[in-house]
User: What shape does this take?
Amino acid sequence: MTGRAAALLGTAALTLPLWPAPWLGVPVMVGVLLALVVLDWRLATPPGAIEASRHGDRTVRLGETVVVSVHLHNTSTRPLRGLVRDSWVPSAGARIDFPGAPKIEILPGGRAVLPTRLTPTRRGDRPALRLTLRSYGPLGLAFRQRAEHPATPPWTLRVLPRFESRRHLPEKLARLRVMDGTGVSRGRGQGTEFDTLREYVVGDDVRSVDWRASARRADVMVRTWRPERDRRVVCVLDTGRTAAVRVGDEPRLDAAIDAALLLAALAARAGDRVDVLGVDNAVRVALTGGAQSTLLARMVDALAPLQPTLVETDFALIAGEILRRERRRCLVVLFTALEPGALGEGLLPVLPRLATRHKLIVASVHDPVLRDLTTRSPERVQDVYAAASAWRALADRDRVRTALARHGVTVVDAPADRLASMVSDTYLRLKALGQL
Amino acid sequence: MTRRRRWHRIVLPLGLVALLLVVTWITSAVDQPDRDDAGFLSSVNTDDDGGSRLAAELRARGVAIERTTSTPQALSLAPHDGFTLFVPAPALVHPLYLPLLVDPAARARVVLVDPSQRVLDDADMPLATADRRWAARTVGTAADGQPCPLPEVRAAGPAAALRQRYTDAPEFGYRADRCYGGGLARSRWRGNDVVVVGASDPFRNDRIDEQGNIALAAGLLSAYPLVVWLDLDGPEPPPPYHPDGDLEPWSPMPGEPNPFDAGETDDRGRNGSEKSGEKPEPSRQAKPPDETNPLWNAFPPWFWALLVQLAVAVVLAMLWRARRLGPPVTEPLPVTVASAETVFGRGRLYQRARAYGPTADTLRAATLHRLLPAFSLPPDTGPDEVTGAVEAGTGWSRADVHHLLYGPAPTTNQELLDLARDLDALSGLLAQNPTDPPRHDRPVQGEAR
Assistant: This one.
């Protein structure tokens, strides 16, 4: 039944004054129309005879556009005239991109490609929900449409985090190289490792002369050092309620993922092993570092679908997981929020266990709104109360920071756009000092 | 935008004109007295649409008035000779009476006010209705260039008699006397003397004084010394007895081309004679079981068939629209919490609790926290030293500084606001000679050195 059938019947009704017996005309016209509709329905291509498949990209970085196409193959002997709708979730930003959409015509045995341009608006997995096909008869009076005929080809587009801190990577790597090369002769930090022996050249630190080796050889030998390698870095992402807070335009978790990715890229290049944990009241993501070349890709893929949940983070679980997984001393970077409630009751009790075994960094995105409230000149009395409240919040945060510092925890509290850079800097500094 | 304005330019004037027309038409329709109203042109009705003033004028001229409320009574009351029968609402007269009504006696005149074509047909008159005006118009007595043959009309002069024009019915071959451009016609067909007036205005109380209206009305009715005034309140019941035994339903609607199309069936009379035992109450209308709703006959059959077919088409359209192209897509929305939500919430709580003291304490402590490093004072400095240092640094008076930093808690919102502004000004002075970067810019703290 289509609008055309209804319009035809309505138009035909206007001829009724001309009929000698109007009451006979109604059933005659309705009957003829229904017969035509049934005929048209029979002649329409059955949607089940269409085969659908999907091709295109599986992943996209947030903010970019990819094309995923539906390929339709008409296996029947009749031409297909119809409408097609390829529904994706709204946040996939799907836009049908073929001429004449959503109308299609496919000859018998023919194929058609229906591309859809996707510009997702959120990180995570964006599934294609359903493909609907409506097949019209040759007269356009009736159509056939049935759920899952043809079956919806499943597809999920993984939207990867933007990883905007990529641009910091060359600079950090340059600093790493500086440590690698010139740092050799500069310092003999307690944590630096012995690398090789080479002949003394003028300018070398005489303290690095290895007399025992010199005695064995005819030359004066000096020891060379290199930064520690094969250390372990564990990035722990708190995905609990505090991660859902929107700072600026994105959730805290997105800034944390960004920072974790930069840190992982840097640490992997520096020869350290990187593990990733995403935990709230359960372990959401656990990634153990493997080959350096694939680590970043695997990590991006694993972190992409991570979403904050409205639960209180179980820090005892985090501590247990870290202690269970990491036997050796390692650098634990905990991405969370400096909130007295969450950290004071959750983290501080388990902190001694953790801090004695591992080096801990707490990285937090701080909220520019607080600073804005405390520095703005008050206009109304509401502003005064809000400023007082903000001062209280800052004071609470300072208390947490002091409590953490007492356990030797390094705290990085930075705005979202600088968090990644600062966490990496901290990592590099600790590495240079040999404190990993 | 421009397109929309162009659209307005066309639609607004047209709409105004249409609105004006509609309003004019409605007010004119409301203003026009209804010929079917009870008391319309009644000799005892003193309202605008009554005829009491006409009756008074007739009495003044020495004409007796006999008012009756039913046609049979009027016919029986009338003497054999020499009277005028005045029918202000001929449309209310039952059709079966009309042939009798227009020929009551040998010497009698019948005056019909604004009879419709249906009335003229039923009364078997050799007249036909022509065009009809919206309102009555005052014209001279002549018609078609001929002077009016009625002396009393000629004496009356111009009057508001032209609304419904009458012409001769072609099938009779009779030529009636006409005045007022066709608004008044007198027929002597078959020897009777029937005057039809196409407008009720000359007889009505509200317009009887204009021009020659009263002269025309009184002149027409005072031809004989007696006027039988047929004053019907509503549609008349049919005659109690009819040789055919059955009566068609009829409509009192004036101007209806076919009297048997629609309207209420008024068969009280027949009930009274034929089915009195079955339905004793005269007020309730009996409906024989085989009788169909007259609404069915009000429109031609194709109309009903058209409605049915359109209904079927609408059902088809509903079936068409009811099938959607796939279900709506759903997606779980991500959890998002507005930033600094708790801070703002706590601020509102302070405000609701009127926590002037704690708020002021917090602000003062925060200012001191910034102040002490600026003046290189240890954190546990006493109030006197701080006040002295601030006085030296800013030039504010000692009492002011002390009141600002250590004074009593404010007691109103305004005091609190003033305090906050002063503290902010003090911080602003300190910021001009920066000694300490803002503390949230120190990203790394607690680092083991």
